[in-house]
Amino acid sequence: MTTTRRASASWKGSFSKGSGEVSFDSSKLGAFPVAPALGDEGAFAHTSPMELLAAAHAACVCGMVAYLLDKSGHPCDLLETSAEVGLDPREGITGIHIVVRGSGGPASDGEFAAAVEHAKRTCPVSKALAGTKLFLEIERVAQQP
Fold first, then answer.
1. Full-model pTM
2. CATH number (domain holding residue 69)
3. Which of 102, 103, 85 minimizes the C-alpha distance to 94?
4. pLDDT tens for residues 96-114?
5. Tell me: the pLDDT tens digits for 45-61?
6. Buried-state track 87-113, b at ≥16 Cβ within 10 A, e below 16
């Protein structure tokens, strides 16, 4: 069965003096100010398409790693995933750098790394971005006493 999620965006005014917003319609989280993809990345009170893409990719990889480890009977106590999307105004998206950190749980370092690598290749966002360079860092943190 296909799952569909919906978001929308609007822009009022000119590119240089206007303003935009993005709405998370399916989750009903509301509207948030958004800067254009090639606009001023210094607009910290606004999200951007690159930040939204980074959030989507981090959430997708993190959820897939959790699923794979749980399915194998080796869940982590904590997973943290971050993503950075690089953008060159002339070339477009230059790559996505993903960092996955896991701590605790019975998975060996090798099992953890294998799950992360598999998630990077197979999560739906990674598949949608198949032509994009993906850089991956895997960090296994010892469980704190």
1. 0.87
2. 3.30.300.20
3. 85
4. 999 999 988 888 899 999 9
5. 788 899 999 999 999 99
6. beeeeebeebebbbbbbebebeeebbb
